[in-house]
Amino acid sequence: MRLRRAARVILIGAPGVGKGTQSERLLRRFPQLQSISSGDLLRQNVKDRTPLGIKVESTMKAGGLVSDDLMVRLVSNELFKRGWIKGQGPPPVMTLASASAAGPDALPTSPEESIIDSILNAAGPRGDAHPPPEASECPSASFLLDGFPRTAAQAATLDRIVPINLVVSIKTPVEVIMERIASRWVHEPSGRIYNTTFNKPKVAGRDDVTGEPLIQRPDDSAEVFRARFDKFEETSRPLLEHYGARGVLWEVSGMSSDEISPELFRRFEEEFVN
Ligand code: AMP
């Protein structure tokens, strides 16, 4: 189905809620839509051994959050690269004061970087920010952001870079997610996933193709999951409040991905097709 307006969408959902499944389904139904996952961008940088990748590797390994500044730079850079936003007006002039405040390593190397730099540095009331980039209204400049923003500070900066027009909060009761995870078995070497409720292996505890034993991942254990879920609830609250106040938040709830998808499609059609 073709979009008539540019969709600039953020998906927010707890681990295990099926955010990945919904993203895939949305991309299939609306081919003009593309997805940007901040976790994937970071992992690619780590793999390519870029300066940013080297910088963030230990934070990621420890399960911490990468700094807001770095994340904003990384995602904005991707938006510029894909042509979904572009700078307007003359490039900002780098003053000696702003250069020294940013530090010798932080000198921007492109007009796009200096725009983001000036937005990031214009925190105070007297901050003299460059005009915000211009977002393309072409439907092919439609995107789903996954994993970014994660904090209210990231969201506030993103507001100054690109206007998000829909924030989807996907909800499933925690007990339902926990039950789903408890019945998930994996064939480690191939990554094949089984579910003892709706996708059973032919022989209990064995991979259909190789006959090798299936395991449950340690991060699928109930306690580990519960801790991740609680952390998500805590960090996503300010984010949801931020977008609630801006009037772009929409909540969809259901017991399964199949229940949620039709609702999500309907909302997309209302918002970006009709
Ligand atoms: P994910 O694949 O979304 O779970 O992200 C993997 C890791 O990348 C996270 O555990 C964080 O260390 C880092 N990360 C991804 N997105 C962000 C973000 N928006 N802010 C801070 N750190 C992030």
Automatic annotation (TrEMBL):
One of its GO terms (cellular component) is mitochondrial matrix. It is found in: Mitochondrion matrix. Keywords: GTP-binding, Kinase, Mitochondrion, Nucleotide-binding, Transferase. AMP binds at S38, R43, G64, L65, V66, G147, F148, P149, R150, Q154, R217, R228. The keyword Mitochondrion applies. Residues 37-66 are annotated as: NMPbind. GO terms for molecular function: AMP kinase activity; ATP binding; GTP binding; nucleoside triphosphate adenylate kinase activity. Residues 184-219 form the Adenylate kinase active site lid domain. GO terms for biological process: ADP biosynthetic process; AMP metabolic process; GTP metabolic process; ITP metabolic process. It is an enzyme of class 2 (transferase). Its main location: mitochondrion. Its EC number is 2.7.4.10. InterPro entries: Adenylat/UMP-CMP_kin (IPR000850), Adenylat_kinase_CS (IPR033690), Adenylate_kinase_lid-dom (IPR007862), AK3/Ak4_mitochondrial (IPR028586), P-loop_NTPase (IPR027417). GTP binds at G16, V17, G18, K19, G20, T21, R184, I193, Y194, S257. Involved in maintaining the homeostasis of cellular nucleotides by catalyzing the interconversion of nucleoside phosphates. Has GTP:AMP phosphotransferase and ITP:AMP phosphotransferase activities. Consists of three domains, a large central CORE domain and two small peripheral domains, NMPbind and LID, which undergo movements during catalysis. The LID domain closes over the site of phosphoryl transfer upon GTP binding. Assembling and dissambling the active center during each catalytic cycle provides an effective means to prevent GTP hydrolysis. HAMAP family: Adenylate_kinase_Adk (MF_00235), Adenylate_kinase_AK3 (MF_03169). Belongs to the adenylate kinase family. AK3 subfamily. This is GTP:AMP phosphotransferase, mitochondrial. It comes from Cephalotrichum gorgonifer.
